[in-house]
Design goal:
The chain is an alpha/beta fold. The chain has helices spanning about 10-20, 45-60, 70-75, 100-120, 145-155, 180-190, 205-210, 240-260; strands spanning about 5, 25, 60-65, 85, 125-130, 135, 160-165, 170-175, 195-200, 215-220, 230-235. It is about 40% helix and about 20% strand. The protein is elongated. The protein binds magnesium ion (MG).
């Protein structure tokens, strides 16, 4: 099945049918709400996107589900959505005070093992994120060789991690950690909402699109023949148009209710 471009009469009609004040509006962060930048630590929301997202937050429940830590993501967002889930679905707000010790303990053990095995490999960076560990190899001169060495090192971890690929990054999570798909379903349940709209651009977001759940309206950021999402936008710069469309639909619905 190929995805349909969202900004067509059919696409917008489908969005309008699905978007309501009792829909959960969920988004990935990097490459979706925020443009991808070369320096990972310099990512931020464009001001018009932040403003539009702020309006959406006042009209309906908004969740951000990201591979970053919650702390990192909050800084980039510059505003608080109703729910922010970090570490690819594994890090939830309730755990902030006492972060899941078993998960973080295991990840810190992996970090030490990986540092011993990969510490000397050129261009490989090990990022410990509490509930997950990310191995970045974008800066390697030979990215294929770096990935091969990363794979060998991962094989030696005990117990073995759940592995999620990305753009020049391999993410490792404990087997029992929630995926983004499981996190979205849990988020809908926690708000008591039966429908969601989710936008994302990366491999980890396919965990949501693959749910094949009619209640979840999937939008892939970027045209991609491999995505399981039914709809797509051409690139991240169209996200502002999407947010404005969502706000417009909800404001119209509210006005109709006010005059009824
Ligand atoms: Mg992304």
């Amino acid at each position: 099945m190929t995805a349909t471009y969202l900004f067509t009469p059919e696409g917008l009609a489908a969005l309008t049918r699905h978007a309501a004040t009792d829909t959960l509006f969920a988004f990935d962060l990097d490459g979706t709400l925020a443009p991808i930048v070369a320096d990972y630590s310099a990512a931020q929301l464009d001001e018009p996107v932040r403003t539009a997202l702020g309006r959406l937050v006042k009209l309906a429940k908004v969740a951000v589900i990201t591979g970053r830590s919650r702390k990192d993501a909050l800084t980039i967002l510059g505003l608080e959505p109703h729910l922010l889930v970090g570490n690819h679905g594994a890090e939830w707000p309730a755990r902030e005070g006492a972060r899941d010790r078993q998960q973080t303990g295991l990840c810190s053990k992996w970090r030490d093992r990986l540092s011993a095995m990969l510490g000397q490999v050129q261009g490989v960076e090990i990022e410990f994120k509490g509930e997950s560990v990310s191995l970045h190899y974008r800066k390697a001169d030979d990215t294929e060789k770096a990935l091969a060495l990363i794979n060998v090192a991962i094989e030696k971890l005990e117990p073995g991690p759940k592995r999620i690929g990305g753009k020049f990054v391999v993410n490792l999570l404990p087997m029992e950690a929630l995926t983004k798909g499981e996190a979205l379903v849990a988020a809908m349940a926690s708000f008591g909402l039966k429908r969601a709209i989710f936008s994302g651009d990366d491999l980890t977001d396919e965990e949501v699109f693959k749910l094949k759940n009619d209640a979840v309206f999937g939008i892939h950021i970027g045209k991609d023949d491999q995505t399981a999402a039914p709809y797509y936008l051409n690139n991240q710069s169209e996200l502002l148009g999407l947010l404005n469309a969502m706000v417009g639909i909800l404001e119209t619905e509210r006005n109709v209710q006010d005059t009824a």
